[in-house]
Design a protein that fits this description.
Layout: H1 3-13, H2 17-28, H3 33-39, H4 41-44, H5 49-78, H6 84-91, H7 96-103, H8 113-119, H9 123-130, H10 137-141, H11 152-169, H12 171-182, E1 185-190, H13 192-196, E2 208-212, H14 218-229, E3 233-237, H15 241-256, H16 264-311, E4 321-325, E5 332-337, E6 343-349, H17 358-371, E7 376-380, H18 385-394, E8 402-406, H19 411-415, H20 418-423, H21 429-442, H22 444-448, H23 467-485, E9 487-488, H24 494-497, H25 504-518, H26 535-541, E10 545-546, H27 564-574, H28 578-581, H29 585-589, H30 603-614, E11 644-652, E12 656-660, E13 667-670, E14 691-700, E15 705-710
Parallel strand pairs: 4-7, 7-8, 9-10, 13-15
Antiparallel strand pairs: 1-2, 1-3, 4-5, 5-6, 11-12, 11-14, 12-13, 14-15
Helix pairs in contact: 1-2, 1-5, 2-5, 3-5, 8-11, 9-11, 11-16, 12-15, 12-16, 14-16, 15-16, 16-23
Length: 717
Amino acid sequence: MKPIYVNFIAEHLQVKVWQVENCAALFAEGCTIPFISRYRKERTGGLDDVEVSEIKHWTDVFEEMDKRKTSILATIEELGKLTPELRDQIDTCVSASELEDLYLPYRPKRKTRATTAIANGLEPLADKMWDTTLHNPEAEASRYINDNVPTADDALSGARDIIAERISDTASIRENLRQIYRHRRIVSKATKAASDTPEAAKYRTYFDFTMPLDRIPSHNLLAILRAQNEGFLSVRIDADPEKCSNKIYYDFCQEHGYPSKQLAPYIREAVEDSLKRLLDPSISGEVLREAKEKADIESVKVFGENLRQLLLAPPVGQKRIMAIDPGFRTGCKVVCLDSQGALLHYETIFPHPPAAKKIESINAVSDMIERYDIEVIAIGNGTASRETEDFIRKCYLPDGVRVFTVSEDGASIYSASEVARKEFPDHDVTVRGAVSIGRRLMDPLAELVKIDPKSLGVGQYQHDVDQSLLKEKLDNTVVICVNSVGVNLNTASPYLLQYVSGIGPSLAGNIITHRSEIGGYTSRRQLLDVPRLGAKAYEQCAGFLRIHDADNPLDNSAVHPECYHIVDRMASDLGVSTKELVGNAGLCEKIKAEDYVEGDFGLPTIRDILEELVKPGLDPRESAREFSFSEDIREIDDLRPGMELPGIVTNITNFGAFVDIGLHENGLIHVSQMGVRGVADPSKVLKLHQQITVRVLAVDMDRRRISLALVVKPKGM
């Protein structure tokens, strides 16, 4: 990678140049983000997976920029206008907008007023005006009268059109104008369509709105731009035309010299025309797009963090589960799953009106609990969720049977997907949806990877942000989460395996096929027998795959096979076997990490090995906890300001967190009501699906909005 790119990335991400260089080299070698962050800490200086993914993003950006530069240079060279100075400017450019500014004068143009003037033979006149060498514009213009240019005024007008376009194509003028616009205010006003359309009411905050563009929160900007796209708002940047015009004229004079008294009015007129007709629409659009890109990045970070928390939610583990997709008229769909998530039984019960077959439903539930030795009950959090939970808790439940409410986000998407059809070809969407609810309680990560992350409700305005950027972030998040937990090689589905470092869908299928052929893996080395899984793929994936009861206990740990010899030496030095060392905290405490540093394996790697040896294969996720809403709150009418209620965080945005308190409407804790001074990022205070206590501040019955405050409990409570 070119030094100019490396230096930009290092400065932008606040990391060392050598860290960027080493990451770029590792990417070029075919290494993945999880592998680099976990097993190449010496080369990265201990960068975490998020930092490595940021570097990967920028290396991809500059790789595409290099391709764009090659295309631009070839086009300009074909025109015979590529000077050494221009080539150097393009080669050393790191800004996409600057690059396009440099290319703009040479870009093939559609028909414009300037191209028409050039076709009419007025470019020589414009050249003389552009060089400020003309002292009698009217007399000079009369020399260019022809059939298409009947008067001197027409000639001067055409020359001004050419100059206006040249001014608009000047890179320095465009960048100076951008700097002005970036620090101006964005102004939005309601359109006539807004007053005629009830759907526009949700945007009424922005019907007469103004705020400095460089200080507007991302969610506000995205809402404004969405309303503009829907035709409910007109949006502009309030740059002062007179000041901007003076700045452009000054920049022109600095470059070309001050025009004569006779020429100056024509240059002024060209400047004003260029600003109004060409520059203002173009620069306004660019600066708004630039601001949106920043808002997109902020929002996408929120989406990524929400998804990470969702995927790493506490699992209940391998339990025998009854899962219920609740409903009123259509009944509650009930499935029973074994401890591996396999479907054992399904049926529909009708405990609620209008059927209200409560006794039959109680008997059916009791029978299923006994017959399938149910340990855990999972209830979807959609329609009739509260009523179904009440019903279940009134049934006889054997000691130890726990009841959980589970998010249904994305369950309907899964149930209608090709993945679900392959898993359950003989069952309809209602059965598949209930199975998904049960499995996501058992292991959220293993189940949710089957669903497009954008369908999991991980943030607001996710359809308004750059979709390629969103996909990159969410895909990276899934990969990072899967590899941070590790995957059981003998039980993982192909949908989970494909996210393991270095594998992908094709190899995942081959791994599953080979697993069936050999009756299960007993050693990581057996992966090398998988068709098309070569040494590089093995290097990337082996450390993230777990084999319970493997011949070598290290195969059930995060210790990479390339370091097994180091562990063997540790055990030998202690006079024990490797099997005796793994999981023995007392023995591990006797090991000095410094004694085992060798070659590419420095202290960071050795310390990671020792940490893993103490608790090999430990799942980093917490255990799932039961939760109950307030029995006194059933409808929004039951709420009163001052009430303190239990709730579950369902979504986190830049401006606050949405909380389920057991009603159809979620409440909002604004960031200012989180009880922590100086914290503007809600994700620093709350986590997705966190169980919290909230206080009701206000209830807007007309808009069905509930304002909440976080009740901050003292530590230890």
